[in-house]
Write a structure and sequence with these properties.
By secondary structure, this protein is of the alpha/beta class. It is 29% helix and 24% strand. The protein contains 11 helices and 21 strands. It has helices spanning 11-14, 18-39, 41-49, 71-76, 110-126, 146-156, 169-178, 188-201, 220-230, 345-352, 387-398, and strands at 92-95, 105-108, 134-137, 160-162, 183-186, 210-213, 233-240, 245-252, 259-261, 266-271, 285-291, 302-308, 310-312, 324-325, 330-331, 336-338, 341-343, 358-369, 372-381, 406-407, 422-426. A 9-stranded mixed beta sheet has the order 4-3-5-6-7-8-9-14-13. A 4-stranded antiparallel beta sheet has the order 10-11-12-15. Strands 20-19-18-21 form a 4-stranded mixed beta sheet, with helices on one face. The longest helix is centred in the first third of the chain and has 22 residues, at 18-39. It starts with 10 loop residues before the first helix and ends with a strand. 45% of the residues are buried. The model has no long low-confidence stretch (mean pLDDT 92).
């Protein structure tokens, strides 16, 4: 059946055969490995210490023999010690918040900006965004890459951009209605805030058709709550500073059966976080990414710390042939262990939002009493929801009974950006 090209930004690349993709990846990975080692002193020294002869590197089959890089590699070489081009070739930079240590810096050549825009434009088109459609960008325009990534992609996709940036939620709501915004981009917890304020004001948002949400884990339960509240289709977009920013890795399509990774630009592996050996498709593990087309800082076997699984390598119902991975279920470094039970914050959210009357605002408070950890979970909920109901459901789903309290809607602290879900406290 012929393709409807309006559904794709780049039909040729998005629907090439699996064999074609592998051929493209094989050639590009050979090129990028040699490029990184030839142009960067750190990578040259690193590979030499590991005994790697890049001249003997044959492509994808040899990729598992190469060493990993990670966030710590970026921090050790701060600010731009991994860069493979001259500073004069850089046109833009973004960086992580550095809230857990030295920030990670990503510089961009013009080629990198074009690649980022291409990947993001594919995501917009996959979400139904057509030239002239109004997109409202609520992530901030600054060192964080979210706002600019959404902007670069919308420009490439020839969309009508409302560059609202973050905060001032009442104004966001007014802009949505004044300009008839079709696509809202945000961190998902901020969309919840918009819904809350719109409800308080008694304002409907009928023009909204689509939400593109990233930077936070997106659970099925949260997606359903937003769909129920706004009647919009919810998409989960994926990317990180180290890969070039939001949307560089991909997004779920209208089939909502997994996140398509743009395989002509990135090669995907999933490994066991402890043994670092590959896991079979369908099994949970840590995502490892090799960028195939980045110029300033290409990453080779980047340990992302994100936990996911490969869902399918077959062509999708949407017509795209790129691999599908599961939504990120957590990170290797955010697993919580309480009273012998291992779990991730996303599992708590999924369980909480299964309880009728519970709102999508909660806090997981980790109390540390001289090395002994306990957990308290505060949730907002309608009248009639009791602590016993919450405790019982969490016990059934997660295997432990946390302490906690029920709060009236609107009582817990709010953020204009990412929600603070986990709070750690020392208890005397």
């Amino acid at each position: 059946m012929p393709l409807n090209e309006k559904e794709y930004f780049n039909p040729r690349e998005e629907t090439m055969s699996v064999d074609e993709l592998r051929s493209v990846q094989n050639e590009r990975v050979k090129s990028v490995v040699r490029y990184a080692v030839d142009r960067n002193a750190y990578m040259k020294s690193y590979y030499a210490k590991e005994g790697i002869d890049v001249n003997a590197f044959r492509g994808l089959d040899d990729l598992p023999s190469l060493p990993f890089v990670s966030k710590s590699t970026f921090r050790e070489t701060y600010p731009m010690g991994l860069m493979c081009v001259a500073k004069e070739e850089i046109r833009e930079m973004h960086m992580s918040s550095g809230s857990t240590g030295m920030p990670i810096v990503m510089p961009y050549t013009q080629g990198d900006l074009d690649q980022w825009a291409e990947c993001m434009a594919r995501c917009y088109r996959m979400a139904g965004g057509l030239p002239g459609d109004v997109v409202q960008i609520t992530p901030s325009f600054g060192l964080f890459n979210g706002g600019f990534g959404m902007y670069h992609g919308a420009r490439a996709a020839e969309m009508f951009i409302v560059p609202a940036s973050s905060g001032n939620t009442e104004r966001q709501i007014r802009l949505i209605n004044d300009f008839q915004t079709k696509i809202l981009t945000a961190v998902i917890s901020y969309c919840v805030r918009i819904i809350e304020i719109a409800d308080r004001l008694g304002v409907k948002l009928p023009s909204l058709k689509t939400g593109v949400f990233g930077a936070e884990a997106v659970t099925d339960a949260m997606k359903q709550q937003i769909h129920d509240a706004l009647g919009i289709e919810v998409f989960n977009i994926y990317g990180m500073t180290e890969t070039g920013g939001v949307g560089t890795l991909g997004m779920d399509c209208g089939d909502h059966s997994g996140i398509h990774v743009w395989e002509d630009h990135y090669y995907v592996e999933v490994v066991d976080p402890q043994t670092l050996t590959p896991v079979p498709d369908g099994e949970l593990g840590e995502l490892v990414i090799t960028s195939l087309t980045r110029e300033a800082i290409p990453v080779i076997r980047l340990r992302t710390g994100d936990l996911t699984r490969i869902i399918s390598r077959k062509p999708c119902a949407c017509g795209r042939t790129h691999v599908k991975i599961d939504s990120i279920s957590g990170r290797t470094d955010d697993m919580l262990i309480i009273k012998g039970v291992n779990f991730f914050p996303t599992q708590v959210e999924q369980a909480l939002l299964e309880i009728p009357g519970v709102h999508p605002h909660y806090q997981i408070i980790i109390e540390d009493h001289h090395g002994v950890k306990d957990i308290r979970i505060h949730v907002e909920a309608e009248d009639g929801v009791t602590g016993f109901m919450v405790e019982k459901h969490l016990k059934e789903r997660l295997g432990f009974s946390p302490k906690g309290d029920i709060f009236k809607p609107g009582s817990l602290p709010r953020n204009e950006g990412k929600a603070v879900r986990v709070v750690r406290k020392e208890v005397d």
